[in-house]
# Entry
Amino acid sequence: MSADEILVCAVKLGKNFCLYFDELECDALCKEKTLLRVLRNVNSELLVVRPDLNLAAFEDVTDQEMQLGQGMHFTIHCYKTTTPAAGMPVAFSVQIEDKSYYMCCEKERGEMIVRFKEGKVPKEIPGESNIIFFKKTFASCCSGAFKFEYSLEEGMFLAFKEEGYLKKLILKKLSTKDEVDETTKISLSKLSQN
# Structure
């Protein structure tokens, strides 16, 4: 047996059964709360997910057309973090009929793309994840508008890009973190009570 020292740390069990080590920083994410919202771009168009077409795009949708289970109402999963300066870590999911889909990012042909995959968002994320975005205030003058930075690639934000008649949801690289780009501006609206 060697005379090496063994580090022993005090530990406490927190809410949601997350372990907290005194004097050590944890990089795991634990779900704190969920919000049900619709996502709108700068033109007040609603984000609609169509997994059968492998598409998420901003569309003109009236309040009467907004229906639960049709890919328009997002659950925003908010996680606790040890690095609040990066922004609130969030994940997105959407219900379409009887199936749940979560938003993730993947590299395809050298380009980062946004996808919606069937499945549930995990309660805990042990490390880095392609489903996490950092929610940041869009600009100091716009308290209700946000931009969402992809957690695995600094400076890459959710945005929309016009392709023909579509305004597709994409990831867009901004040259500086303080750059104001209207295509990255996303407002979160509570559901209207019809």
About this structure: The longest strand covers residues 29-40.
